[in-house]
Amino acid sequence: EAVNRRLALLDIDARRVLQILAVSGERIPLSTMRKLLASEDLPVLGKLVEHGFLRRDESEHAFSHPYLRDFVEASIPAETRKILHARCLDLGNDDGEPLEVRAEHAFRAGDLLTALMLLERMGQEAMRRGDASVAILALRRGLELARRAVLETGDEALDSAIVSFSRQLAEALIWEG
Description:
The protein is mainly alpha-helical and about 180 residues long. Helix content is about 75%, strand content about 5%. It has helices at about 1-10, 10-25, 30-35, 40-50, 65-75, 80-95, 100-110, 110-130, 130-155, 160-175, and strands at about 25-30, 55, 60-65. A 3-stranded antiparallel sheet has the order 1-3-2. Helix 2 packs across helix 6 and helix 9 runs antiparallel to helix 10 (about 160-175). It is elongated.
């Protein structure tokens, strides 16, 4: 409730900038920020630092607390959140962001095929490096996404994705014990 009251004191531009930053992550490098924000929005960052929403380091801005970022992101309308995640996915692809970051943005943007592809690659790479918990997370998300898509669209072409994710998830779960 206190966080919500503090957010209500911000003007619309500051809230919009905070929402964009919340979708992009807890720590945002200045180079990424310049690509995400319009030049007229950059002065708003000073206001957000002044009000205690962000901290500024030499090379990045960070939310003052992880809960604050989660709260701001959760308060974004669903369709707007999807658009912002799609924008971050495009930027992540251009900047060569890690696979896990791109998979998260694709998943949250609702980009079905990209999300399935990235989640499967993420699961396979996690298994290769011996990180079963990350593989389980990625493969479970991929399976849930494919199942949901089949239920919503009735597209039987995704049946093979369900089988593939199920098999790989079972292997990861067995490996994890």
